[in-house]
Structure formats: C-alpha cells, structure tokens
Here is the input.
Amino acid sequence: MEHLAVIMDGNGRWAERRHLPRLMGHRAGADALDRCMHYCKAAGVRYLTVYAFSTENWKRSEDEVSGLMKLLSGFIASKEKTLVKEGVRFRVIGRRTDLSEKLQGEIAALEEKTKGGDFTLVVALSYGGRDEIVRAAAKLAGRADPSAPVTEQDFASCLDTAGIPDPDLIIRTSGEQRISNFLLWQAAYAEFYFTDVLWPDFDQAEFDKALESYSKRERRMGGRLK
Ligand code: FPP
Here is the structure.
C-alpha cells in the first residue's frame, strides 16, 4: 500500500471519558499521529494523509479552535528537526488562507525545509472536499482558454493534492462510518476501514489489523480481475 489516509476521530470522547478538557484529547491525538507515522514508515507506506481540521471545525468553541491552532503551530515548531532528519516531507492541503498569516508562514517554511523527504505527511487543514473541488473548478475556469477540453488529469492537477497518488485505504476511528467531506475526488477507488477505537488509542495492533483487512480485499478499480 502506497497511501493511507486517516480521519482521526474520537479525541473529544477520549478526553471526556477521562474527565479531561477536550484539548487534552487533541494532544493525545497528536501523539497518536506521531506513532502512526512510524507504523507507516515501517510498513513501507509512503504517504500518510490526516484530517486535522475541517472547514466545518471553525464552528467549534473559540477555545477549542484556538487550542487546535496552537497545537498545530507547536507541532510545526517542535517537529522540524525530526521531520528533516527522518526524511518526512510535510505538506498541507485545504483553504490555507483561512489560517492566521503566522501559521501560513510556518507551514510554508516547513514545506520548503522538508521538500526533499521520501515519506510524505499530508495534513488537511481547513479542508473540505467540496471546497477543494470548487477551488479547482475556479482555477480551471481561469485558464487562458477556458473553452479547451478538460481531462480528469487536468482537473486533478488543480486540486490541493496535485502530484500525490490517490489514497489506497481510508481509516476512520471512533465508530463513525462517514466520509465527512474528506478527499471526495481522491477517494473514488479507496478501500475503507472503520474501527470503534478512539484515535488517541490507535496503536500498532490496530494499525496491523487495518492493513491486514486491506490486504485481503480484491481491488478491481471498476475492471474485472481474471
Ligand atoms: C476529531 O475528534 C479530531 C479533530 C477535529 C482534530 C484532529 C486533530 C489532531 C489529532 C491534532 C493533531 C494534528 C496535528 C497535525 C498536530 P473530535 O474532537 O471530533 O472527537 P469527538 O467526536 O469524540 O468529539
């Protein structure tokens, strides 16, 4: 498997069950992400995309939104050296102009510093699949010759994920079985894996189970296997 994508759900419930503030759940979620990156590398997965903040997440309390933004900014500051050392290329997808100018600057700097990495961590921030598709359509409409025919490849090259292969497997934790506006275009042929485990508890055993389930699937991609 080349590309794993994860909807990291259940941080809030993980914290509530421990009578902790929700933000502690997101912190534990960030640690789980760190571990997941290592499982991926060891398993030969080359791309990991995670849903860290959706276009809808802005509706959460001001405290939670600012806490999540601080967590992201802290992640960027504290991880820079490790990411470079471990050959992790960092990339953000989503409507990044929604983010503070400071955070946008930190993201751009980290993307630049890590661009030589051979493992790619894609973080979806202020991301919505429909929003990404609409922005791609607007880009295409702005071409020099807007009446020229458009191929699927042309369209894909206008998405935030340009150059990144489609996900092979999408995992969603915490028992929800929805796509929630994540990678709508890119998920066309993805396999799905759902687990009741909350994201902060997602460990090596859970990762192995997901990969094992994936390895048993027959992927026809719309064609027929002989
Ligand atoms: C969903 O759980 C999770 C989120 C909205 C945020 C995910 C963010 C992280 C794990 C932060 C780390 C990311 C980086 C890149 C450092 P929820 O709050 O919806 O949980 P609930 O459904 O139990 O309330």
